[in-house]
Fold Platelet glycoprotein ib alpha chain-like.
Amino acid sequence: MTIEAMRIHVLPYGTCKAMRIHVLSHGTWMAIRIHVLPYGTCKATRIHVMPYGTWKIIRIHVLPYGIWKTIRIHVLPNRTREAIRIHVLPYGTWKAIRIHVLPYGTCTAMRIYVLPNRTREAIRIHVPPNRIREAMRIYLLPYGTYEAMRIYTWNTILFVIHRIYNM
């Protein structure tokens, strides 16, 4: 008992909007929304709703010059959310941001930069409920060498910097 529906709106200025909905037999449904703007930018949103209240959103923005951005959001039944945002640049460099939001206000964010020479840079930020922020930056070089810098801040006061070099 799978149902698929598609709705398309074409607006006067060349903008079109399409929505496709898939309803599966076990109560899970998926919706895809696509917005195409006149200057070649398109935006797609995909939503998965699971039977137990968990839902997942994937939003994709494609810009005219080949840069695209993806946002994934997972919402668990305990109201914990995870968001992943990815930017892909024209020269093979991409940037990913992963954010975990816990029910009691704790937020964890990770940024990953991948350069064309396969060097990666990761920044991880942890914000607990007491507003103390911990940031960790990791550089991963092509041959396994990495540099880690951990920063703890409280009320914009920096009090620890720790660097690790591993050859």
Notes: Residues 3 and 21 are 8 Å apart (CA to CA). The longest strand covers residues 157-166.
